[in-house]
């Protein structure tokens, strides 16, 4: 999916998911675009997981569905492909809401995600909190955000 089409389709969902929270819709849509390959990843297309959320014991214990897929992780400075269990969502909405929920947990609050003044500051806080193993994660989000920012004002809600 083209970035413009992805943004047009999912930005309203980002607004809805972030409504009433300190998580900026721009942060949500930018992360969703990067993590899901603009909606083209198998994880997003089939399993409605737009943020690359891995599973946890509590997710499985609460009846959450999972799928085992290969993923790239940076381990000790080297990119490796590993198999991981990922969360499966019933809908994109569930995935977006879970992302916002996660970013309001202690780990992210302590890193400054919820007190950031703008999306770029949230990207930096996500990096600080260790959201992704990619050491360039924040920089990638920032670049993508600048590239898609013009789409936001053109979306009719």
Q: Flag low-confidence runs.
A: none
Annotation, overall tally of beta strands: 2
Number of helices: 8
Instruction: Estimate what percentage of residues fall within beta strands.
Output: 5-15%
Q: Calculate the mean pLDDT score and round it.
A: 92
Task: Describe what this molecule looks like in 3D.
There is one protein chain. This protein is α+β, with helices and mostly antiparallel strands and 157 residues long. The chain contains eight helices and two strands, in the order H-H-H-H-E-E-H-H-H-H. It has helices spanning 3-18, 25-36, 42-47, 57-61, 92-102, 106-111, 119-129, 137-152, and strands at residues 65-75, 78-88. Strand 1 (65-75) and strand 2 (78-88) form a beta hairpin. Helix 1 (3-18) packs across helix 5 and helix 7 runs antiparallel to helix 8. The two termini are 20 Å apart. The relative contact order is 0.18. The model has no long low-confidence stretch (mean pLDDT 92).
Output the keywords.
157 residues, alpha+beta, two-stranded antiparallel sheet, 8 helices, globular
What is shown here, in short?
This protein is of the alpha+beta class and 157 residues long. It has helices at residues 3-18, 25-36, 42-47, 57-61, 92-102, 106-111, 119-129, 137-152, and strands at residues 65-75, 78-88.
